[in-house]
Design brief:
Helices cover 26% and strands 33% of the residues. The chain is α+β, with helices and mostly antiparallel strands.
Length: 107
C-alpha cells in the first residue's frame, strides 16, 4: 500500500526565475551530487551547463567544476566565469549583498 506524501517546497536560496534546464544551483548538498547533476545534463545532450552559486557555496561550485573536468570530462571547457553581487532582502527588511558566481561549461 503506497502512501502519498504532501508536496514540499525546498528553499535553495535562489529567487524564482525562468526555468532553465541547464543550470545546476550549488547549495548545501555534497559536491558529488552536483557533479552527477552536471554529468547527467551533458549525457542528455545539453551543449552548455551553467553552475551557479552564491555566498559560501562559491567554493563548492569551483570544486564541482574542477572535479568534473579532472575526473569525468577531460574535454569540457570553461566558456565564461561571471562574478558579481546580488542584493537580498533580509527578514528584518534590511538589504544584504551576496557574492555570486556563474560558470558556464561546454564541449
Amino acid at each position: 500500500m503506497s502512501k502519498i506524501l504532501p508536496e514540499t517546497e525546498i528553499d535553495d536560496g535562489f529567487e524564482d526565475e525562468e526555468p532553465a534546464p541547464n543550470i545546476v544551483r550549488i547549495g548545501k548538498k555534497p559536491t558529488m551530487n552536483y557533479v552527477v547533476a552536471c554529468v547527467t545534463l551533458f549525457n542528455t545532450g545539453v551543449p552548455e551547463v551553467m553552475v551557479r552559486a552564491r555566498g559560501q557555496s562559491i567554493n563548492k561550485a569551483v570544486e564541482t567544476v574542477e572535479m568534473l573536468r579532472r575526473a569525468f570530462f577531460k574535454n569540457v571547457q570553461i566558456h565564461t566565469v561571471d562574478i558579481g553581487p546580488e542584493e537580498v532582502a533580509r527578514e528584518d527588511g534590511s538589504i544584504a549583498s551576496l557574492s555570486t558566481i556563474e560558470i558556464t561549461l561546454g564541449n
